[in-house]
Specification:
Length: 79
């Protein structure tokens, strides 16, 4: 399967983090990454590894799909 360069992953990391009243540094420490990683992820400039996505979802007690959404080819509808 060829990768479509316009495919992306959008996330709700910021929303979940703010609801827990956590700083980027706090979340980074819990999931084992740098504050910069959380910062760029929240700006949708970084797609986390599957392992990191699971760590984040598990920390917030939700499924990966509740935080990370695959967007195919720039389409507004998630697939």
């Amino acid at each position: 399967m060829l990768e479509n360069k316009s495919d992306s992953i959008v996330n709700k990391v910021y929303e979940f983090r703010v609801l827990k009243r956590m700083s980027q540094s706090d979340l980074a420490e819990v999931v084992g990454v740098s504050k910069q990683t959380i910062f760029v992820m929240e700006k949708n400039n970084y797609f986390p590894s599957l392992l990191l996505a699971y760590r984040i979802a598990n920390f917030f007690g939700v499924s990966i799909e509740e935080i990370f959404t695959y967007k195919k080819g720039g389409n507004e509808n998630a697939e």
